[in-house]
Amino acid sequence: MTFASFHRAALANLRLWLLALVWSPGAVPFAAAPAPVAIDWRHSPASIASSCKAALKSARARVQEATARPAQGAQALSSLLAVETALAELNDALVAQRVLAIASVDKAVRDASTRCNDELSTFTIGVSADPLVYARALAAQAHASTQADQQLARRYAENGRRSGAHLSPAASAELSRLLSQLSRLKSAFIQALGEERLTLELSKAEAASLSPAFVATLPATRKGYLVPVNLGTLERFMKNTASGALRKRYLAVLYRHGGEANSRRVKQALVLRHRIARLLGFESFAAYRLDALMAKTPARALELLQEIDAKLLPKAREEIAELAALKAEQGEATPFASWDYVYYQEQLERTRHSLDSEAVRQHLPVHKVIPAVLGLYQQLLGVRFHAFEPASAWAPGVLQYAVTDAASAKPIGQIYLDLSPGPGKFPRPSSFTLRHGRTLPDGSYQQPLAAIIGNGPSSESGKPPLFSHLGVVELFHEVGHVMHAALSTAPYASLHGTSVRWDFVEAPSQMLENWMWQPAVLKQISSHVETGKPLPDELIATMLERKHAASGVYWTRQAFLGVYDLTLHTSGPNVDATRLWFELMPRLTPLPPLPAGTIPDASFLPIMGGYEAGYYGYAWSRVFAQDMFTVFQQAGLDNPEVGLRYRREILEPGGVLEPQQLLENFLGRPVNSEAFYQDLDNQQLGP
Questions:
Q1: pLDDT in tens, 647-686
Q2: Which domain holds residue 316?
Q3: Are 613 and 305 within 8 A, CB to CB?
Q4: Which residues neighbour 656 within 8 Å (Cβ) at sequence distance 6 or greater?
Q5: Is residue 350 in a domain?
Q6: d(CA 601, CA 269)
């Protein structure tokens, strides 16, 4: 049974869970059931092409009309707001046409949607680079009377400067051409990862070492079985496969995902980025990128990464040494290798600490976890969820919810969860804002739409699909992003929700991950797939005790990835991304290198998926996340007043306020890194 078919069968159970949550004691009943937002998801390639063309034509005319107005005084702000409205309405008109690139099961539809996204990107780049728009943004900064208007004008001025609106016409045209080329390369890179289906063929004898339940899910071949090689099977295969040769083969396939074609795209992107930065007067693309972020300079970001690496490196070496010793104890004479890490980490937890990740998984069925996670968000943020049945969405199996305010029952926004495995989708569930909230001309507020889309867990032998604990943490994180989008009250689409500085955007969701490590919460979200019992106390205690058992390796690897990304984007146009990976990795983490012949850069999505020169942001924002969590620790994790304050002061403003101001408003003091290091158990760290 596929995940989608199981999901449809389980909707009845899911409905009961959701009704119990929505109509819980103290909840404000709906005056009327919220209506789903009307989006037409039934598009053919031809309808996508025609509607995309028409929407772009209309938006182009409206921007031209807006910039024909005077660019001085109060009229400059009025002109800029007209541009903002035109762009927002363009995105609203193309919700389905944009998202189908990563959600449709039809490749022709995905291809047409990708072309529409490329055309939309080219148009918006052109608007940012338009000197008429830039002039109005500069003038509007002096005449904006509200914080939101000032910030909007500042963003447009920033974007104009970074898009070359101040350059000569020839240089500006060249920059727009480079940015459009770069956008197309990124789309092609992402599409290649979504389309390519990697597999590893095992003989029947080799498959005998795998769990029967896992083998039962695999397609049979004449020789044996095909194992899908992706992030969905990675954890289970590497943890449970005793054969080092098989693990090596799996990893060798995984890290050739994207292949030489994607590696060439990375090289081409690095050349384009270097030329873009130089055209704009920056020494490197990293300097260009960080100039508009919290860190401001690559040196500042590198300083944090190097500090984390120095503190965690001794612990990481101890962790690897312990695993290497365990491998030797089990009679393996070969040196400890990259394909050994996950397997022996699991062996260590099972044999010495009685922590079996498979046993944990059995307590985390999808039909229990999803409503329980939503229930936690209800309690924390003062909202209610209402499930639409049937969902008005792009595919069967998609879940759709209205989000309403718990106190007033006022509709706030709508979210979608699409976790069904399928072609063309992100390897793991990721969050997307489909339509931004904004104040409409009549003074009402447009409900935002957000979604989590990607390959979730699949069912085995007709049993319910199960999350790993890591999968639950990731789900809770992604729901945090869609709630950031759903709850924002920013008046402009350009400032709405997650439209914050890129090196802060992860912090709210990272902070929320802490809930998935609380004993009472783990009880609440778990239910054994056969007995219905929650995770036992002793298993939870072991999970918490071992929470940071591998933090040395984890954080030195994160430091490596951040340094790798920044080095790629500060080393000029001729850097070899594959070679740099293998040169840099041994310096920053004791993890052994990947198998020879692999091309890790070809599937390293962050450098082509929006985090280029920004991967450091995961570590940077984690410092903020753990500092914010101290407020909940002091007042109580289930304290509704703190939850509402978090909603009001961190989530609702979106990009209207700079992150530093958001943090200080919530903390009541400047940010510090003490909580980050304390969470990692400070006494185990280096000097």
A1: 999 999 999 999 999 999 999 999 999 999 898 874 444 4
A2: 259-267+282-355+549-615
A3: no
A4: 147, 148, 151, 490, 491, 495
A5: yes
A6: 12
